[in-house]
Write a structure and sequence with these properties.
Number of domains: 2
CATH architecture of the largest domain: 3-Layer(aba) Sandwich
Number of strands: 18
Strand order of the largest sheet: 3-6-2-1-9-11-12-10
Largest sheet: 8 strands, mixed
Number of helices: 12
Structural class: alpha/beta
Order of helices and strands: EHEHHHEEEHEEEHEEHHEEEHEEHEHEEH
Bound molecules: adenosine-5'-diphosphate, aspartic acid, magnesium ion
CATH topology of the largest domain: Carbamate kinase
């Protein structure tokens, strides 16, 4: 029997009515002759509430217990979905990560899936189960503790199951009807893309477009999973939604595919560190060990053998970064005058594989921001993207301005 993976995000299972509507979609696919693996998220807002409770209990919380608490939202939805399917005479069973088992690394709060053995689910399917309802976002470590896969991790659960069970398709049902040129909540003129290349989606996701978790796109690319993003609120046809696919499948495209943003960035500056070989390793080694995701890095001009080092990281990692750098300073591994955290910045990026062969994208971007009087604080580039840090208060304006500057409302 061909297998289909259907993933329902938080808003698509926000209450019992929505779960019922999702269950009807699932029943429709059963009638098409599929064996179905459903991945569910926690009900909308639930994970945020759980994270808040953890942080309120303990600012520098224990990651293992964070995972124990925060993974629980998905379990509620999985059980409710199975019960809803039972009412519709569908043979369904809920599965928590450890029951499958979804084996992950031991990196709590941000674990990676290593393996999904098929035996348990295959046996259940052969005994008559029509739908396996899996709690997304969670797995089990080598030490038999519950892990979570990072925010938005249910997307990754879905793609990993699609790869393990060689699913014909992996459909991601969400609250928008596909991937847009930018977040449609910010730019009214955002245009839905019928197709987007894996590489572009990967960049957009890693630069903040939360419609898909970055790791899910990586896995889809590696295992050639047919990944589709579509709305759980609208009727969909075979041509609906957005297909994330290989570059070769896309006939026409713009130089810039989309604009992504990440609102909660912090710009950290170490004032007056010794400018000597090994200093970068001495700073960024401990940061990486304590789980800080450093993104942009700028080393300033040095004077009298001392320099300023600037880097960016998500605002919720500022505390960890400060603690880790203080520890390195106390141990004598690094020496700096002080650490300045600017938590009022945001990152805006333009992404497109067309940049490989077209010059002038950076100039257009900087000119457009200048035209609105938006100051650029840090810049980084790669082959297919340009990112800038700006004041957070200009974020919406910057996204809309860049969308207009690259005429993304028009099809390529
Ligand atoms: P779910 O709960 O279904 O996983 P998410 O909130 O994680 O949904 O992701 C969907 C949201 O992603 C949309 O509501 C939209 O605001 C946001 N988003 C950001 N960038 C984009 C984009 N380029 N295209 C579509 N949606 C985007
Ligand atoms: N519930 C988790 C989150 O909100 C995982 C997910 O929805 O993908 O991050
Ligand atoms: Mg999501």
């Amino acid at each position: 029997m061909p297998c289909l993976v259907m993933k329902f995000g938080g808003t698509s299972v926000a209450d019992l009515d929505r779960i019922q509507r999702a269950a009807e979609r699932i029943k429709h696919e059963i009638a098409q002759g599929y064996q179905i693996i459903v991945i569910v998220s926690a009900m909308s807002g639930k994970t945020n509430e759980l994270v808040k409770w953890v942080k309120e209990t303990s600012a520098l919380y224990d990651d293992l217990e964070y995972d124990a608490v925060v993974s629980s939202g998905e379990n509620v939805t999985a059980g409710l979905m199975a019960l809803t399917l039972h009412k519709m005479k569908v043979s369904a069973r809920s599965w928590q990560g450890w029951q499958v088992p979804v084996r992950t690394t031991d990196t709590h709060t941000n674990a990676r899936i290593e393996e999904i053995p098929r035996e348990n689910l295959d046996r259940a399917f052969s005994e008559g189960m029509q739908v396996a309802v899996i709690s997304g976002f969670q797995g089990i470590s080598s030490k038999a503790r519950i892990t979570t896969l990072g925010r938005g991790g249910s997307d990754t659960t879905a793609v990993a199951f699609a790869a393990a069970f060689k699913a014909e398709r992996c459909d991601i049902f969400t609250d928008v009807d596909g991937v847009y040129t930018t977040d449609p909540r910010i730019a009214g003129s955002a245009r839905k893309l019928n197709k987007i290349a894996f590489e572009e989606m990967l960049e957009l996701a890693s630069l903040g477009a939360k419609v898909l978790q970055t790791r899910s796109v990586e896995l889809a690319m590696r295992y050639n999973v047919r990944l589709r993003v579509l709305s759980s609120f609208e009727e969909t046809s075979d041509r609906g939604g957005t297909l994330v696919c290989a570059e070769e499948e896309i006939m026409e495209s713009n130089v810039v595919a989309g604009v992504a943003y990440s609102r909660d960035e912090a710009k950290m500056t170490l004032i007056s560190v010794a400018d000597r070989p090994g200093i970068a390793a001495a700073i960024f080694g401990p940061l990486s060990k304590s789980g800080v995701n450093v993104d942009m890095i700028v080393q300033n001009i040095s004077e009298d053998g001392r320099t300023d080092m600037t880097f960016s990281c998500p605002t919720d990692q500022v505390l960890r970064a400060e603690k880790s750098l203080q520890t390195a300073k106390d141990s004598g591994a690094i020496n700096y005058h002080n650490l300045v955290a600017d938590e009022t910045v945001a990152k805006v990026s333009v992404v497109g594989i067309g940049m490989r062969s077209h010059a002038g994208v950076a100039a257009t971007m900087f000119e457009a921001l200048h035209g609105e009087g938006i100051n650029i604080k840090v810049i980084t580039t790669s082959e297919i993207k340009i990112s800038v840090l700006i004041d957070r208060k200009y974020l919406e304006l910057a996204v809309q301005t860049l969308h207009d500057a690259f005429e993304l409302e028009k099809a390529g």
